[in-house]
Amino acid sequence: MSSLMVMVLVIISLVIPAVRPSEDSWTLKCLSTVGIVDQKTVIKCNFINIQDIKIETVSLKRTTHKEPIFKYFKTYSGDPRFSLENSTSGPSLQISKTKFADEGEYQYRVVTNRGEKKVQLGITITANYKNLTSSTWPKDVTDGGPADLYCNATDGYPAGFIHWFDRSGTNWTMNSELTNVYKDTNGLKSVALSSKLTFRSINLELGPFRCIVLNSKYVQEEEMTLHLPSAYTESSVTSNTTHIVAGVMVIGSLIVGLLCALLIFRKKNVQHGRRPSGQPFLSYDDSGNNAEDDLESGYKLPLSADEIETKP
Ligand SMILES: *[C@@H]1O[C@H](CO)[C@@H](O)[C@H](O)[C@H]1NC(C)=O
Ligand SMILES: *[C@@H]1O[C@H](CO)[C@@H](O)[C@H](O)[C@H]1NC(C)=O
Fold first, then answer.
1. CATH assignment of the domain containing 79
2. Is residue 251 part of a domain?
């Protein structure tokens, strides 16, 4: 342990240049940060214009407060959710489980072997939208009827957006109306979003619809597909049935026509084949297809003597 310390000290003394640059020639820079509630937030900070710098102490305090909320001096103290992201690589900070209460302006003080710096940093907190639900009014939407499509999401922050697309990807957002309901329960800020897409007369073939929840920075967070009754059920059944009936009738009459033609053709053949045998024509008349026989009569001539006898 002690030998390691000695080694570290030797290395440090070797890398530290004999002539130190003045403290003002380097800076500490931190980026403004957007944290997400319940997630880890990293506040990126960098030393600019300097190498071979070693962090000795850091402390973070709200600009409005005197006492730091977090300190590092060999060990951490203060809010246990705060720490240096990686103390050997730089002064970046992290918050392990971000809270809304972490939002605000801070002063960050870093003491190094090359002097000390203070920097202002801002943290804003957002919360992702959850509980995406959809519904329709009326519950059973009918083709050509009025319809309101709803998409709701809760617990997000700040206020976001809901966009609508139909099956073909057409953007229907312009026809929708977004409602935001703000809530603040003991510093836990949230917004409930509800979007209503209204149709005076809906075409069910446009479905299914997709609603997309975007955060305040227009980044997509959630997506949901809202299925409508199929355009081939419900009210459209009747029009489809007529189509089917018409089709069946056309095909049916074609088949009947074909059968008639076949029958006539066969009868003609039978006549030719049977005329000498003297089979009575009556048997055909008994089949009940008189119309066909009338049609056929033109082709019957000449009749043999036998046939004339058997005809009533
Ligand atoms: C969405 O919100 C609207 C308005 O608050 C409400 O009428 C509708 O029933 C909600 N739908 C769902 C699925 O929560
Ligand atoms: C859809 O329309 C909305 C409102 O007009 C617009 O803000 C959004 O950018 C559009 N989205 C796409 C993907 O075109």
1. 2.60.40.10
2. no
Distance 194 CA to ligand 1 centre (A): 7
Cα(173) to ligand 2 centroid in Å equals 6
pLDDT averaged over every residue in the chain:
80
Spacing, Cα 62 to ligand 1 middle (Å): 40
Nearest CA to ligand 2 atom 11: 171
Domain with 118, as residue range(s), is: 24-126
Cα–Cα distance, 96 to 133 (Å, whole number): 30
Question: Is 163's pLDDT higher than 70?
Answer: yes
Closest C-alpha to ligand 2, atom 12: 171
Residue 248 falls within a domain, yes or no? no
Number of domains in the chain: 2
Average pLDDT over residues 140-160: 93
Name the least confident of 126-140, 160-174, 275-289.
275-289
Same domain, 98 and 157: no
Identity of the residue numbered 25: S
**Which ligand is nearest to the Cα of residue 180, counting in written order?**
1
Tell me, yes or no, whether 62 lies in a domain: yes
Ligand 1 center to 135 CA (angstroms): 7
Residue whose Cα lies nearest atom 11 of ligand 1: it is 135
Whether pLDDT at 309 is above 50: no
